[in-house]
Amino acid sequence: MTPFSTSDTRDAATLRSRVQALFDRSGLMLHLGAHLGDVAPGRVHVNLPFSPALTQHLGLFHAGATASIADAAGGFAAYTQAPENCTVLSVEFKINLLAPAQGESLEAIGQVIRAGRTLTIVQVDVFALKAGEKTPVALMQQTIMNVPDRA
After folding, report:
1. Digitized pLDDT (tens) for each residue of the chain, 151 residues in all
2. Is residue 3 one of the residues assigned to a domain?
3. Fewer Cβ within 10 Å of end Cβ, the chain: N or C?
4. What CATH number is attached to the domain comprising 126?
C-alpha cells in the first residue's frame, strides 16, 4: 500500500477533493459550522467561525469545540498520508489549553510528525484569530490508526 500521490497540481486537487468529501460527511463539523481550509500532504487546516452556540459560560470558545476541530485537523492530516484503500480513526489524543479561546474564529492546523504503516502521530496547533492577530490557544498530540476503508 502506498500513500496518496501528490506529485503534481492535479494530484493535489484530487487529494483536496478526497479530504473534502470525508469532511463533508462529518456531522459534527457541519453542526459546529467548521470549514476545511488548506490541504497539503501531511497538513490540514480546519477553521471555525465564532458563534454564541460554541461558547462556555464566560463567552469563550468551549474546550469541546476547540478539541473537536483539533481532532478533525489531525485526523484529516493523517488521512493525506494514509495508504490507499484506508481511512483513519483517532485512537488517542492529549490537548493542552494554552490561553482563553476568544476571537472571530479558531484555526486548527494538523501536521503529521510520523506516518507509519498502522499508526500516525500528529501535532495540532490551534489559534484564535482576532483583528488580524493569531494567538496560540491549544496544542494537541494525537495518534491516528489506519483502518481499511469500508466505503
Report:
1. 445 544 445 588 989 999 999 999 999 999 999 999 999 999 999 999 999 999 999 999 999 999 999 999 999 999 999 998 899 999 999 999 999 999 999 999 999 999 999 999 999 999 999 999 999 999 999 999 999 988 6
2. no
3. C
4. 3.10.129.10
- Kindly state whether residue 102 falls inside one of the protein's structural domains: yes
Judge whether 110 lies within some domain. yes
Which domain does 93 fall in, by range?
9-148
Domains identified in the chain, total number? 1
Name the packing angle between helices 9-24 and 63-79 (round to 10°). 140
Read off the pTM. Answer: 0.92
Domain annotation covers residue 2: no
